[in-house]
Design a protein that fits this description.
Elements lengths: L12 H14 L6 H6 L5 H14 L2 H12 L10 H6 L4 H33 L36 H12 L11 H6 L3 H16 L2 H20 L12 H32 L3
Helix pairs in contact: 1-3, 3-6, 4-6, 4-10, 6-10, 6-11, 7-9, 10-11
Length: 277
C-alpha cells in the first residue's frame, strides 16, 4: 500500500519552496500527502497550488474547515484519562506531540478537503460557484495556526512488524475495500504504538456498525457544499502543464478527496476529542 510522493526532507529547489509556502499558508508544520503526491507530476503541484492558494491565504480555507469540523455529527466520545495514555506509553511530552499531530491533521485535512474538492470540480466543470456573501454568516472565526513540530514520518521498514500491522489495520477502517492511499497521520503516531491501539479500539466499533461510514458520507456532503462557496476564492490555475499532468491531477484530486481525506477528517476529529484538552 504505497503511493508516489516527494518526501518533505527530500524536497529541494522549486518543490522545496512550494512546500514551505504550503506550510505557511495552511498554518501547519506538515505538507500533507496529497501535495507531496501532486509534486510527482511535472508541473502538477505548481498548477494546483496557484489555483487554491488565495483561498488559504485569505483565511477563508481555515474558516470553512473549522465550520465543516463543527458541523460533523460526531458520536459521543469519552475522553481517555491521562492514566490510560501513560499506560499506553504516551508520557507528558508525547501527549503534547500527539495533540500537535492531531491538531495539524484536523486543520489541514478539513481545509484541503474543501479547497481540493472545489479545484477538482472546476477542472472537471462539474458545478458553478455560488455567491460567497450568502454563506459568510455561517463561517466560524479564523482558527489559529498549529505551532510545534511533528515527529518523523515512519516508513513501514522503520516499524516493527506488530506496529506495521496495526497501522495497516487502522488504514483499513472506513474503507470500501483495500486502501490504496495510506494515511500519513498514523505513521506520525506510530512512535507511540500504545496510542495506535487506543485509536483502533475507539474507531473500529464505529466502522463495524456503520457509524463511521455515515460520518464519512456526511463529511463528503459538507465538503461539497463548502466547495461551492470556495469556487469564488480560486484563482486561475495559470499556465497549463503537459497533457499527461492535466489528466493526472484531476484524477488524483478526486481519489484523495473522495477517499482518504474524507475518511481522515472525521477519524482525526474523533481521536482529538478522546485526548484530554
Amino acid at each position: 500500500m504505497t503511493i508516489a510522493a516527494i518526501a518533505e526532507r527530500e524536497a529541494i529547489g522549486e518543490t522545496g519552496a512550494l512546500f514551505a509556502d504550503i506550510r505557511r499558508a495552511l498554518g501547519v508544520p506538515v505538507v500533507n500527502l496529497v501535495w507531496r503526491h501532486l509534486a510527482t507530476f511535472p508541473g502538477g503541484l505548481d498548477w494546483a497550488w496557484r489555483a487554491v492558494r488565495p483561498f488559504y491565504v485569505s483565511g477563508a480555507a481555515a474558516r470553512e474547515g473549522a465550520t465543516l469540523l463543527a458541523a460533523l455529527p460526531l458520536s459521543a466520545v469519552s475522553t481517555w484519562s491521562r492514566g490510560a495514555l501513560r499506560a499506553a506509553g504516551v508520557d507528558e511530552a508525547g501527549e503534547r506531540t500527539v495533540v500537535t499531530v492531531l491538531d495539524s491533521y484536523n486543520r489541514s485535512n478539513a481545509m484541503n478537503l474543501v479547497a481540493l474538492t472545489a479545484l477538482a470540480a472546476r477542472l472537471r466543470n462539474d458545478f458553478a460557484p455560488v455567491a460567497a456573501a450568502a454563506a459568510a454568516a455561517a463561517l466560524a472565526g479564523t482558527p489559529p495556526a498549529v505551532e510545534g513540530e511533528l515527529p518523523a514520518l515512519l516508513s513501514v521498514a522503520e516499524m516493527t512488524p506488530a506496529i506495521a500491522e496495526m497501522v495497516r489495520r487502522l488504514d483499513r477502517l472506513g474503507e470500501r475495500g483495500e486502501p490504496r492511499i495510506p494515511a500519513s497521520m498514523y505513521r506520525h503516531l506510530a512512535h507511540w504504538p500504545g496510542f495506535l491501539g487506543l485509536a483502533h479500539a475507539l474507531v473500529a466499533p464505529l466502522d463495524h456498525d456503520g457509524r463511521l461510514g455515515d460520518l464519512i458520507e456526511a463529511t463528503r456532503i459538507l465538503a461539497g457544499a463548502a466547495a461551492e462557496r470556495a469556487m469564488t476564492e480560486l484563482a486561475g490555475p495559470g499556465p497549463a502543464p503537459g497533457p499527461a499532468t492535466q489528466d493526472a491531477v484531476p484524477a488524483a484530486l478526486l481519489e484523495f478527496t473522495d477517499g482518504v481525506i474524507a475518511k481522515m477528517v472525521p477519524i482525526a476529529a474523533l481521536l482529538r476529542r478522546a485526548v484530554p484538552a
